[in-house]
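hey can u check if this looks right to u? its 117 residues, i copy pasted from the old doc so theres a chance i mangled smth
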Amino acid sequence: MPIAHLIMTQFPPKISIDRILEQNPESALAWVKNTFSAQTTAPQDFNWLLLADVSSAKARKGENNAGLFDRTWAEVATAIYDRLAEVAEQKKPGSGESVKISSMMLRAGAIATISAL
């Protein structure tokens, strides 16, 4: 069942990280953006860092593990990393550095991969 359907039919959404990762990257990105814009809510205690890390790995492996960089999974990951860094910085300055680095490393990997093509 597509995430978009879950967004429209369930409140609060009963969605797991596995369910998100089973979707295509466009659906996952739409869910993340809708959640960040308060159009929907994530389950309580949602593990955003895990979703970002797995999305980052999917971006690096590409579709069907073809080795071609997947820009949309990268966008999912960087959107989450950037939001986590922002929230952490608001709570305590300097505490978002590790997720900022994760976001920058993914971007640098994308640049290196795409420029090598």
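The mean pLDDT is 85.
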